[in-house]
Amino acid sequence: MATLLARLGTTAYRRWPFFIAGWVGVLAVIIGLAAGFAKPMSDNFTIPGIPSEQAADLQAELFPGSTSAFDQANVTVVVQAPQGETLADPANAAVVDQLVVDLAGLPQQADDVQIVPPGQAAAGQEQMLVDQAKASGGSVERARSNAAAISPLTEDGRTGLITYTWDVETPADVEAATLDALDDVMDQARDEGLTVEANGPGATGFATPGLASEAIGIGIALLVLILTFGSLVAAGLPIITALIGVVIGLTGVTAMTAVVDISSSTSILATMIGLAVGIDYTLFILARYRTELHHTDDRARAVGIAVGTAGSAVVFAGLTVLIALSALAVVGIPFLTAMGLAAAATVFVAVLISLTLLPAVLGMLGRKAFGGQVRRYAPKRDEQGLVVNNGVRWARWVGKRPVALVLVVVVALGALAIPLKELQLAFPTDSTAASDTTQRKASDLVSAEFGPGREAPLLVVVDARDIASGEEGAAFGGVVEWAAGLPGVQNAQVVGTNADPSAEPGTPAAAATGALVQVLPEFGPADAEAQELLTDLRDGEAGVEDSTGTDIGVTGLTAITTDVSDRLADALPVYLTIIVGLAFILLMIVFRSILVPLTATLGFLLSVLATLGTTVAVFQLGWGGLVEGQPLVSFIPLFLIGVVFGLAMDYQVFLVTRIREARVHGMSTPDAIVDGFRNSARVVTAAAAIMTVVFAAFILQDDAIIKSMGFALAVAIIFDAFIVRMVLIPALLYLMGDRSWWLPAWLDKILPNVDVEGERLDRGATYRDEDLDGELNGLSDEESVRV
C-alpha cells in the first residue's frame, strides 16, 4: 500500500492543477445538490419496531390523519398573575385577552386558528365532559374530576395555559422570525405585570449553531501549529485543507436530507469530528514531508515518501474511525445511523484530502511551503549524534519506571470511572433545559402549579374493533380503570374516540372502534419513575386485553423516548463487539502482533470508562458548576464510544507505527520506543492538543447535546492521547519487550502485509539516512536541503 500511496502523492504533487481543479469541481457539484434538493433537519428520534412506535402505527390506523408525536409543533404559553391576584381580575383578564389576540396574529398561524384564554377553555372543557357524562349515563362527579385533572387553569385561578399549534408540518419548519415574534408578544404581556413563558416542541426551534466554537478552536489550533512548525505558511495548510473537507462533508450531509431524515445535531457533530481529524491527518503527512526534505533534494519524491509512510498510517487510522462510526448502522437505529454515516463521510473526505489535495497544494507552493519562518530549531544531540528532544527524554523516563506508571494510570482512570455507576440516560426535554430559558421556566411553572406529570403524559391506544357492537364504552372504561389503578398514576381518562359525532345514532360510523386514553403520572418525563410506570403498563397489557377484548398499546413522546433509550442500551454490547473485533483485526494487520492490538484495546476501555465517569460527574451530578445537573442524552454513550475508539486508534497507529518502523529496521524494542518517541511524540502531542481544543470549544454551544459531546470528546482525547498512548502503552511495551511483536507463524501467513512502514519504497540513490530529528524544526527549506 505504501508504494501505491507514494505514487499517488508524487502524481498529485507534479500534476497539482488537475487535482486542485478536481476538488473544486467536487465542491461545486455538492453545493449545487444541497441548494437544489436539501430539506429541513429534524429531531425525530424514533426506531421502527419498538413498542411505542407500534402503538403509534395503531393510532394512525384507528385515527387517520393523526400526527406523529415528533411532528406536533404545539406551543404551551404559561401565564401567571402576580401573587395574591388571579387571571380573572379585570386588569389581568384584559392583558390575557390581548395576548390571545396577539398570539393568533403571529406568523405561521393557521387562518382559522382558535386560541382562547385559560378560563374560557377550562369552563368549556368541563361543560363538554359533564354533557358527555349525562348523555352516556356516566358519573358527573367523575367528569368534573377529569376536567380538573386536565384543566388549563389552576384551582386558585392564578396560573393558566394557552395552547396552540403552528401551521407547519414539523417543528423544524418553525422559523426563527416566528419565535422572535412570539418573544415580543410575551414581552408585551410581561410589561403589563404578568409572568409569561412558553415551551413545547413548537417553542424550541432549530436555531443554527453559531460559528464562535469553530472560530475559537481553529484559532487555538493555528497557534499550536505555528509553535509546532515555526512557519506561518505550514501552520495554515492543515487549517485550510481541514476547512475544505468540513465544507464538503457538511454540504454533502445537507444534500442527503433530500432522501433521509437527519437530526439537527448531526451537522455540528460532523463538524467537530471532521475539523479535528482533518487537521490531524494533514499535520502528520506534512510533518513527515518536512522530515523527508532532510533526506532528499527531490521534493516530489519527498512528498511521495511522506504520503507512502505517514499516509499509510492516516489510511489505517481513518479506517478505524470509519469502522467505529459506520458500525452504528448495524444497531438498527435510524437517527444514530444517519449521525454515524454523516460523521464517517466527513472523516473519509478528510483522509482523501490529506492524501491528494495536500500534495497538490504543496506542489503549487513549491519552496514556499514552509515560508514565513517565526523561529529556528537547534536540537541537542547525544554522543552518537542522535537528537535528544523531549520525546526521547519522556520515553527514557517512562522506561525507568514502567510498573509504577502502569499501576498509577490504571488506578487513576479507574477512579475517574466511579461516577459512572450513577449514570442516568434520557432525552432532552423542556424540564432539563437551561434554567435561564423560557422553555425551562415554563416547565417549572407547569410542574409547580399543575404537577410534574402534566408534561409527561402517556397515551394508551385502545383497539375495540374485535368486540361486539355496543360494548365499546364498557371496554374503554375497563382500560381507564385499569390504568388509573396503577401506582404513580394521577389521572386516566378517555381523551378521544374515532366515532363520527355527526353520524346517525346506531349506524357503524357512530360506533367508536378506537379510543385514546391519556395517563397522567405523578412525576416528570426525566424522572426515573417514568420507566417504572411504562413497565407496569406494558406488563399489564395482556391482562387488560383479555378482560376487555381489546388490543392496546402505549405511545406518546415520553413512551417513545423511553423505548429509544432502552434500545440504545441493548445495542451497546453488540456495537462494542463489532467495532472492537474489526479494529482488532485491522490493528493486527498494521502491527503484525497480537499483544499490541490487545493493549491498545484495553487502553481504550480504560479511557472511555474514565471519560463517561467524568462526563456523568460534570453533566449529570453537576460537579464543578459547569452546567446544571441533568440526565445524559441517551445516545451519547453509544456515539461517544464509537468516536473515542476511532480517535484512540488514530494515536495508537501514529505513535506505534513509528516504533514498529524502528523495530523493523533492526532496533531492540526499548531503543525502538525511544526512536519512535523521538520522531513522533512531538507531532502526536501537537495533534492531540489541537483535537482537544477543537472539541473543547464546542462546550460554548447552548445545545445540551453538543455541549456534553464537546466536553466528553475533549476529556477523552486528554485521557487517551496523553495518558494511555503516551504513558500506559510505552510502559507496557517496555514490560513486554520483544514479545510485543509476537505473532503465530500461521497467522502471519494469513494476514496481508500492507507495508505501513514503507519498507519497500524506492527512496532513490541520493537519499540521505542521517538522523536529523526531521519531524518538526524551524530550519528554512534551503537550510534543510543543504543539510
TrEMBL record:
Keywords for the protein's UniProt record, in alphabetical order: Cell membrane, Membrane, Transmembrane, Transmembrane helix
GO cellular component terms attached to this protein's record: plasma membrane
Record-annotated membrane-spanning stretches: 16-38, 220-248, 268-290, 302-335, 341-366, 403-420, 574-595, 602-623, 635-659, 680-699, 711-735
Residue ranges that the Swiss-Prot or TrEMBL entry lists as coiled coil: none
Pfam families noted in UniProt: MMPL
SUPFAM superfamilies listed in its UniProt record: Multidrug efflux transporter AcrB transmembrane domain
Domain SSD per the UniProt entry, residue ranges: 232-364
Membrane topology qualifier: Multi-pass membrane protein
Location of the protein in the cell: Cell membrane
Record-given protein name: Membrane protein YdfJ
